[in-house]
Write a structure and sequence with these properties.
By secondary structure, the chain is of the alpha+beta class. Helix content is 34%, strand content 25%. Strands 1, 2, 3, 4, 5 and 6 form a six-stranded antiparallel sheet that branches.
Length: 251
């Protein structure tokens, strides 16, 4: 029981304080114009879409370490290097998890992953439809720029739907870091593993719509979600994606 109390109290506060430079919650003077929060992602569908202003600081989550292998226990120079990297990454995960739990009351990994997948689905639907206004409310500016260029250059819109979740969405990495001043940023990488169907919609004369053959694909992606955890008014948004590790690619 004493250990549990420790992680709820001093250890948690010291982890967050080390990143933020203070022990109290930071109340931002800058209110983010955000119409949505990650939890309850169904409420993202709205008509009065506002532009979301967000801070971009670069990726804190750049790669996912290889999974632990029994062969790593064999004492060699390479295995020692892999063990060191694995342990370092796991310690950073624990440290960052404690920071998120300190600043975000009630934050839990499993519910977050489920809601993150729902937001990911909504982003895919908006991208397929060419709905750039909606994308602006849930994606980082740099990501929006790329998506807008892709939408502008394509000749078709699409119908997108998720056929099934092959394996439940899960968090594979958490990173927090003090970026500048009192800003502590959190990034969470969520592994998405789905069957998705996409069909092209070619718009011809008089708005006649012709639908192409639907194509179902196994899609696995590592999606990065970000928010300023020291600002209670800022929502989670989709920052971008990182490459799927070679050992986890689809066949």
């Amino acid at each position: 029981m004493a250990a549990i109390g420790l992680f709820r109290g001093p250890a948690l506060r010291s982890a967050a304080a080390a990143l933020s430079g203070k022990t109290a919650f930071y109340q931002s003077t800058q209110r983010i114009a955000a119409p949505a929060v990650l939890y309850g992602a169904k409420r993202f569908v709205r008509t009065d879409v506002e532009r979301l202003y967000v801070q971009e600081f670069g990726l804190l989550c750049k790669n996912i370490p290889d999974p632990w292998k029994p062969s790593d226990l064999v004492p060699t120079r390479d295995s020692f290097s892999r063990i060191k990297k694995y342990v370092t990454e796991r310690l950073l995960d624990v440290f960052s998890l404690l920071t998120l739990k300190y600043y975000l009351d009630g934050w839990k990994k499993k519910p977050f992953a489920a809601d993150a997948e729902e937001l990911y689905n909504l982003m895919n639907e908006a991208y397929a439809q060419g709905n750039t206004k909606y994308l602006e409310t849930v994606c980082a500016p740099s990501m929006i720029g790329t998506l807008k260029n892709e939408i502008k250059s394509r000749k078709y819109d699409f119908e997108w739907r998720k056929e099934s979740t092959l394996t439940p969405a899960r968090i594979v990495q958490i990173r927090c870091g003090r970026i500048a001043g009192n800003y502590t940023v959190g990034q969470v990488v969520v592994r998405m593993d789905q069957e998705q169907t996409v069909s092209a919609i070619a718009r011809g004369a008089r708005s006649q719509i012709k639908r192409g053959n639907a194509k179902t694909t196994h899609v696995r992606e590592y999606v990065v979600f970000q928010r300023t955890v020291t600002d209670p008014n800022e929502p989670w948004f989709i920052y971008g994606k990182i490459p799927v590790p070679s050992w986890d690619k689809t066949q």
